[in-house]
Amino acid sequence: MNPIQELVINFQELAAQVPEFLRPFIVMLAGAVPFIEGEVASLIGVVGGLNPIVAGSAAAAGNFLSVLLVVLFASRTRTAVVKHNRGRAAARSAALVPGPGGYGGSPMLEETPPAKPVSKGRQRFMKWLVRFGVPGASILGPLAIPTQFTAAILIASGTARGWVLLWQAVAIVLWTTVATVSIWAALTYVVGV
């Protein structure tokens, strides 16, 4: 028995101590965590001895539920910020400072805080968004940043909630399926467990 087979068997014995009905929920919770997401969660489930279909479905469901919560929260936040900024803009235009010589007024100048540097992952994602649109950015996004972050960025940029949820679901199903089939094939044909 090689070391990888031994490791997999030991992990399966550890997972066997958890009641059978709880295992998919554990995989679902793992799928909800950014950076673990559906791909790694399905790997945990398959290596832990779950049926690959159950493991992939639970991991994708957990990932999608977390993205759904992020989209709903980000959408409400964006709506509140846009309403607040419209109110400030209206108040600012009403509070013009009178200029010299009867000029109608000039807006008050405010200092703007310096912008934070943008991370490499976000730069790569924004380039994909411009180049491929929401579908391409959603599908390629997990290569740069977690799906939860991708969804938040898309909502913050003004993309419709339904459109974001649709393409995030497609991306989650696609990447989780690829990961689940890959780990199942590797365990079955390479490792021999």
Automatic annotation (TrEMBL):
The chain crosses the membrane at residues 21-47, 53-74, 128-145, 165-191. The keyword Transmembrane applies. It comes from Arthrobacter sunyaminii. Keywords: Membrane, Transmembrane, Transmembrane helix. This is Small multidrug efflux protein. It comes from the Bacteria.
